[in-house]
Amino acid sequence: EAQVTQNPRYLITVTGKKLTVTCSQNMNHEYMSWYRQDPGLGLRQIYYSMNVEVTDKGDVPEGYKVSRKEKRNFPLILESPSPNQTSLYFCASSLTGTSGRASYNEQFFGPGTRLTVL
Amino acid sequence: KQEVTQIPAALSVPEGENLVLNCSFTDSAIYNLQWFRQDPGKGLTSLLLIQSSQREQTSGRLNASLDKSSGRSTLYIAASQPGDSATYLCAVRPRTDSWGKLQFGAGTQVVVTP
Predict the structure, then answer these.
(1) Which chain B residues are Cβ-neighbours of A49 within 8 angstroms?
(2) Between the CA atoms of B18, B105, A55 and A85, what dihedral angle is there, to the nearest 10 degrees?
(3) Distance of CA A14 to CAs A7, A77, A84, A86, A90, Å?
(4) Which of A24, A87, A111 lies closest to B38 in space, CA to CA?
(5) Residues of A with CB below 8 A from B96's CB?
(6) With CB atoms 3.0 to 4.6 Å apart as the test, which of A8, A68, A99, B81 could cross-link to A104 if both were Cys?
(7) Which residue would you say has higher pLDDT here, A104 or B62?
(8) Touching check for B97 and chain A: CB below 8 Å?
(9) What is the tens place of the pLDDT at every residue in A66-99?
(10) Strands (E), A53-105
(11) Taking CB atoms and an 8 Å limit, are B100 and A97 in contact across chains?
């Protein structure tokens, strides 16, 4: 089954304790992205990656790191989490973004990771 | 910077009525626009994607139109059902150097009452 998986689905941690949220897709997609969703602020993009070893900042990258060493994986790293990073996080992927074929651009989302930083 | 707006923020309709959801964007230089559905506490499910060269896309009871020149897209859901209750979001992919930066609207929360 074609899907985007995220782990963990729920995480409660404390300020300053490094954590990684994993994201994996089995569709051979080039493009992957991380978002956070907060009440009243909607979905905001953190980082995205056009392909292996190619990443770029979204709108809210501060406090986050990413890496794209393999095509299927795009982990989100919080080196020193703070309470303002408490949020619902989504990973997404698409085959590409600029193809003339709609099916190549369609984004697929993971189920989300609810993170609480105390 | 691209701004995406969805109005209204919330909408309640009786079952059977047609739903009309609006999405507007400030920069017409886009590759595509995608509509999603989100159920409470859940992920996003893709509904329709419209390429910039297209005027509309249809899937079952759903129809999405795109008017790039006026910066608007409309999602129509025919004969609404209680199962259509969810938040609907639109997102645009800009046709610029930052095409990887998707911009989402804040969403329209829909309640369909039996």
Answers:
(1) 100
(2) -120
(3) 18, 15, 12, 11, 21
(4) A111
(5) none
(6) A99
(7) B62
(8) no
(9) 999 999 999 999 999 999 999 999 999 988 755 5
(10) 54-57, 65-66, 76-78, 87-94
(11) yes
pLDDT, tens digit, 9 for 90 and up, residues B47-103: 999 988 899 999 999 999 999 999 999 999 999 999 999 999 999 988 766 667 788
**Any alpha helices (H) in A13-109, and if so which ranges?**
102-105
> What percent of chain B stands above pLDDT 90?
77
Q: What's the CA dihedral at B100, A102, A26, A31 to 10 degrees? A: -10
Cβ neighbours for A10, distance < 8 A, ≥ 6 positions apart: A113, A114
B-chain residues near A98 (CB < 8 A):
31, 93, 95, 99
Please, are residues B88 and B35 in contact by the beta-carbon 8 Å criterion?
yes
